Amino acid sequence: MPAAPAPDQPRIRLHGYWRSGTTYRARIALNLKGLAWEAVGVNLVEGGQHDATYRALQPQGLVPALEADGLVIGQSPAILEWIEERFPDPPLLPPDPGERAIVRGMAAAIACDIHPLHNLRVFKQLRQDFAVATADTDRWAARWISEGFAALEQLIGRHGRGFAFGDRPTLADCYLAPQIYSADRFHVDLTPYPRLVAASQAAAALPAFASAHPAAQPDAVAAS
Description:
This protein has about 220 residues and is of the alpha+beta class. It has helices spanning about 20-30, 50-55, 75-85, 95-115, 120-130, 135-160, 170-185, 195-205, 205-210, 220-224; strands at about 15, 40, 65-70, 70-75. The protein has two domains: about 15-90, 3-Layer(aba) Sandwich (Glutaredoxin); about 95-210, Glutathione S-transferase Yfyf (Class Pi), Chain A, domain 2, CATH 1.20.1050.10. Strand 3 and strand 4 (about 70-75) form a beta hairpin.
C-alpha cells in the first residue's frame, strides 16, 4: 500500500482478516486506485469478529469494514462501489452502462452464488450442527466453485481480452482473484477453465494484486 495518503485523500482504515476473500477484494480495489490505507486485523479464527468493540463498528460482525470520510461501510460490494465512486480514476467499471452491468454480473456470480456457500461461518455451523467432516465441506466448496467457474469461463470467453472483462482490470478481477485463492485451498481442478486461469494470472502479475495476496499481509504469519 502507498506509504502516505495524498493531501486530498481521507484516512482509510480497512478492518479485515488476512485470508478473508471479501477483505482480499477490498485490498485489491484500494491498491488498484493507488490509495493509502491502514490494515486493522480482525482474527476470525479467535473470534475477533464477535468482540463488542468490533460489533459496535460493524453490527453484523463480518469483515471487512471500511472507515473513511466519517463513514463505516460494511459488505465488500458496497465498499468496492464506494471506492469506485469516490476515487473514479483509474476506473474499475467500463463507461458503457451495458458493459458495467456485465462486469457487475460477473462480480455478483462470485459474491452472491459462490463465496457465501463456503465461508468460515457456514463451515463452522455445518461441523457443529450436522457433524459434517472437513473432507465433506471441502467437497461441498469445490462443487459450488466449479459450477460458478464453468459459467464465468464462458463469460470471460465472450468479454475478456486479457483480463476477466476487457483489456484492463475491473471489479470482476477484484472478485475473481480471491475466488481463485479459495479454489486452490479446496483443491479445485482448474484445467477446465483456461480463460479464467489466464485472466487470473494476468491480474496476479500486477503489483496491486500481488501486494493484496493473503500471504503478503502483516497478520498472515501470526494468524496461520
